[in-house]
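Recap from last week: sequence in, structure out.
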Amino acid sequence: MQEVMTAKQIADYLQVNELTIYKRVRLGEIPVVRMGRALRFKKDIIDKWLEVESGWDQEFENLLQRSQRFGKAAGITEQKIQQAVEKVRQEGK
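Predicted C-alpha cells:
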C-alpha cells in the first residue's frame, strides 16, 4: 500500500515549513490530492517529483543517451541496448 501523508507530515519529510507546502500547493507546484478541504500527498509521487525538480531525471536521460551511442559504436545490438535501458529504468522505480 502506498504511504499517504498530510501537509504536516510532508513538510516534516521535506524539512520545510508547513506554510511552504501550502504555498506550493496553491501555486500548483507540488503534486497533491484534495479530499474536500483536506490535502493528501502520496510519498512515492513526492519522491518522483523531487527527482524531477532536482534535475536527476534529465541527467539520467543524458547519461542514457550517451551510453546508447557508445553501445552502438561498440557494436552492441539495438535490442541488447533497449533491454539494458528497460532493466535500468525498472531498477530505478
